[in-house]
């Protein structure tokens, strides 16, 4: 039987409800305390989930708390993770690891010096969709991947989020920081570490209008670049073109397509856990479907719509599996998949992409990481209820 780790949650926003659902699926962690700078949010969270509300300092100094779950806004990730590690806690944070690379390096150094685990979302690459893709690539179904493309493009959060300003702020906003982690984490787990990046960017609108909530119809300034066109080169020789944009009303492109020397692959949405993988090995136009709805982390588990894009009743959502897998690895002294090294490599790509676009100069990726093995059924079953 697995050890059950006591988890303290910092940051009681919308995403916290998804992690509390993890209690239904995973057998080795339990959120027992929450904290937020907004005391009202912390109190409501504690009441909703029958746990204890406290201040951040009280939570960090509580000897019962073994892992801190850091669900704060991106610009607070570094400070909360740093304070958690310095308090002797393992820490698992929402994406990205930090908003600048040097802070990410410091977190990894602190975790190693204190022999503590540091993990980061996204953990969607552990779901059926990306893992089935990894399995098929490992089985040489499309040969060596040489080319590909990926796209995340939509109109932005202002139509459905009551406080969208951070998504458009300098140093913490924009599509590379917001959605890049899902696509980049999936790609490096499919193809291995990245080598260099070229990019250009633009800002289509100088102002946006809030669509819902108390500030409905209020206008706010767009500070950051909101669309990026990127060429990402990998150490294995693959070259992937990526579009990341908050400026597109609609499109009909696949999320990720990979082109090998024996065939082509359509990879499902890396922001989700399930979805079918499609492969074509000739020019007939016939695509073979590889379903994932019979996989433990691929089957649909959402029965009602909360308004979040990843909470549709047609989706699989197992956020928290990265935390559960890390807890298992802490208990068994193993390397975990949502590791600090992986997160720092993704942060390196994010920062390098933005710098490449800003300076119009290609950037070398300074870091690397060890690509994890396929997440086997046997391993998954060890952490499932």
Task: Provide the descriptors you would attach to this structure in a database record.
single chain; alpha/beta; Rossmann fold; Dihydrodipicolinate Reductase, domain 2; 9-stranded mixed β-sheet; 17 strands
Give an account of the 3D structure:
With 385 residues, the protein is α/β, with parallel strands linked by helices. It folds into 2 domains: 5-120, NAD(P)-binding Rossmann-like Domain (Rossmann fold), CATH 3.40.50.720; 126-314 and 339-364, Dihydrodipicolinate Reductase, domain 2 (2-Layer Sandwich). 31% of the residues lie in helices and 22% in strands. It has 11 helices and 17 strands. The protein has helices at residues 16-25, 39-49, 56-60, 74-86, 101-113, 128-138, 175-178, 180-191, 321-332, 340-359, 377-383, and strands at residues 5-10, 29-35, 52-54, 67-70, 90-93, 118-120, 145-153, 194-202, 207-209, 219-221, 227-234, 239-245, 256-260, 264-267, 277-280, 288-290, 363-364. The strands form 3 sheets. A 9-stranded mixed beta sheet has the order 16-15-14-13-7-12-11-8-17. The chain has a 6-stranded parallel beta sheet with strand order 3-2-1-4-5-6, sandwiched between helices. A two-stranded antiparallel sheet has the order 9-10. The longest helix has 20 residues, at 340-359. The chain is globular and about 60 Å long.
């Amino acid at each position: 039987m697995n050890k059950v780790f006591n988890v303290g949650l910092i940051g009681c926003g919308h995403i916290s409800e998804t992690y509390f659902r993890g209690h239904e699926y995973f057998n080795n962690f339990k959120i027992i305390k929450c904290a937020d700078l907004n005391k009202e949010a912390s109190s409501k969270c504690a009441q909703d989930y029958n746990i204890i509300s406290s201040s951040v300092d009280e939570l960090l100094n509580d000897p019962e708390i073994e892992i801190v779950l850091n669900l704060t806004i991106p610009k607070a990730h570094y400070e909360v993770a740093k304070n958690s590690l310095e308090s002797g806690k393992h820490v698992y944070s929402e994406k990205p690891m930090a908003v600048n690379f040097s802070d990410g390096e410091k977190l990894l150094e602190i975790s190693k010096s204190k022999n503590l685990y540091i993990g980061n979302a996204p953990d969607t690459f552990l779901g059926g969709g990306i893992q089935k893709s990894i399995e098929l690539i490992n089985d040489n179904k499309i040969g060596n991947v040489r080319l590909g493309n990926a796209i995340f493009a939509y109109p932005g959060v202002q139509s459905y989020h009551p406080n969208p300003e951070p998504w458009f702020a300098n140093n913490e906003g924009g599509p590379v920081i917001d959605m890049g982690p899902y696509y980049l984490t999936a790609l490096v787990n499919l193809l291995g570490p990245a080598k260099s990046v070229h990019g250009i960017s633009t800002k289509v609108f100088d102002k946006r209008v809030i669509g819902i909530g108390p500030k409905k119809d209020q206008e706010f300034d767009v500070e950051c670049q909101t669309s990026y066109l990127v060429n990402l080169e990998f150490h294995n020789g693959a070259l992937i073109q990526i579009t990341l944009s908050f400026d597109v009303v609609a499109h009909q492109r696949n999320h990720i397509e990979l082109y090998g020397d024996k065939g082509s692959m359509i990879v499902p949405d890396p922001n989700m856990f399930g979805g079918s993988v499609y492969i074509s090995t000739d020019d007939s136009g016939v695509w073979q479907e590889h379903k994932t709805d019979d996989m433990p982390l691929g089957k649909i588990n959402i029965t009602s719509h909360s308004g979040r894009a990843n909470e549709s009743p047609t989706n699989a959502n197992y956020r928290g599996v990265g935390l559960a897998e890390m807890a298992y690895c802490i208990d068994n002294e193993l390397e975990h998949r949502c590791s600090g090294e992986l997160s720092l490599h993704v942060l390196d790509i994010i920062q390098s992409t933005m710098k490449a676009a800003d300076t119009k100069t290609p950037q070398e990726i300074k870091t690397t990481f060890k690509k994890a093995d396929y997440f086997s059924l046997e391993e998954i079953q060890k952490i499932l209820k």
